[in-house]
Design a protein that fits this description.
This protein is mostly helical. The protein has 9 helices and no strands.
Length: about 200
């Protein structure tokens, strides 16, 4: 058997183990899940599980890392070979971001149930991408914007919208969420109406 076929088989095995683990976390919670249950649900034995993972912690870590790596890749995928893109034309990467989350919503929900720190992981992943993969050039303004504050504001808003979407159990489509996020980023508040008299 060729090395490529072995790699493909190993990848399929890991994917089956990961999928089984995610399902079990969503069913009964991370702490209650045993290695034997994961192996049984994936239709493998414990020995096969241990050939790929030391334990649940390593398995969860890989699921988290793959999910976050996909976030970073989604942002860049639509612009392969380009040097820059106009700010008004970032819909493709926004859509890819939400599509990645929608496609991996079970993994995302499982990660949320294990630790809410996934929102911080998301924020840090986006921030790393905005620092290492791209840079936003701002229009001149008065007063000038502090780049780090602006980045923090936009990324916090983006993560907040993503977490709200997850809290709503992904009620809306990725397309709807991408449209809404861009509308939110580009909207300006006209005025505030007081519901109670100050």
């Amino acid at each position: 058997m060729t090395e490529q076929k072995l790699d493909r088989r190993a990848r399929r095995t890991r994917e089956a183990i990961q999928a089984a683990f995610v399902e079990l976390i969503l069913e009964k919670g991370y702490d209650a899940v045993t290695i034997q249950e994961v192996a049984d649900k994936a239709d493998y034995n414990r020995g096969t599980f241990y050939k790929h993972y030391v334990g649940k912690e390593e398995l969860l870590k890989e699921i988290r890392e793959v999910f976050l790596k996909g976030i970073r890749e989604a942002l860049l995928r639509p612009y392969k070979g380009m040097d820059q893109v106009e700010a008004t034309k970032i819909y493709p990467s926004t859509l890819k971001l939400f599509e990645h989350i929608e496609c991996h919503k079970k993994e995302f929900k499982a990660l949320i149930t294990v630790h809410r720190g996934i929102s911080e992981d998301l924020y840090n992943t986006l921030k790393t991408s905005m620092r290492e993969d791209m840079h936003m050039e701002m229009e001149p303004g008065d007063p000038p914007l502090d780049y780090e504050l602006m980045l923090s504001y936009r990324l916090s808003a983006t993560v907040g919208v993503i977490m709200h979407w997850a809290d709503m159990d992904f009620k809306y489509s990725a397309e709807y969420m991408a449209d809404q996020l861009l509308a939110l980023v580009n909207s300006k508040i006209d005025h505030i109406v007081f519901k109670t008299k100050p």
